[in-house]
């Protein structure tokens, strides 16, 4: 499959997934709802399961790990227990690596769909699913474990605003079974008063300013502290600054188009605690992305947990701006999502998912 065929292929999968997701919440017939919902989850999951050799860590990490677990009974994996258990489950069934890929993708897409469905009265679920497919689906071919953890945490955010600590903790623990980085979102529950309520906006802004200051002075302030924590010494190579400080137009291009509409719609967002929390998480994600561009590239991975609210906020922007008769701004935001999809995965070749290759060739 060549470059353009791959673009058409991924685009078609994205559109079919989004269309089925939208139909599942619009249909009044319960059987039709189930049919479309299954399609919305199965289409991208099967596509992920049938792939071969694509995704940066496919042949470097995940396939060799599967073979080690399959061929060596006493092999001790360094990966998270939930992912290892899923590998062993697939092996016990006598199935191959494609089944593992399918199950991980199924888990990821399922929680994204369920998470979006919570907001079905406030936005287009299909559009939210399309934004996910364009920004994160091909990324999930590379960061399989983290993508699963991200989707679980995205769904779990409902328990932050409803103040159900046990359920949020249980889902966070479940997410950590696939990637320990999911712990980064756990403090959000206790900081809800700061980022989920408009009356504490001033302290929240101060916290953002402090975070930006720490990011820009990472080598002098944060690294000596973080590097001195014994449990994090294994990750010292990731935590060490990899870039000298310099502003890049890239970080602004990837953040400002998603932030400006939120500031424009700040009154509407303040009236909805869930949307207000998501927007504040997006701001934090943009700050972590700034860190990835100026000091440590690895923080891009951390930023994803805070940036995934884009899949809710973009369709929310489109609906709210349409009500304000400023539809063109919503169209411009979505056009930028489309541009990032083309630029990242097809022009720059991020995650090595192009051209698409399947097990049948």
TrEMBL record:
It comes from the Bacteria. The chain crosses the membrane at residues 35-54, 89-116, 123-139, 168-194, 206-225, 245-265, 277-296, 302-318, 327-346. Pfam families: EpsG. Keywords: Membrane, Transmembrane, Transmembrane helix. InterPro entries: EpsG-like. This is EpsG family protein.
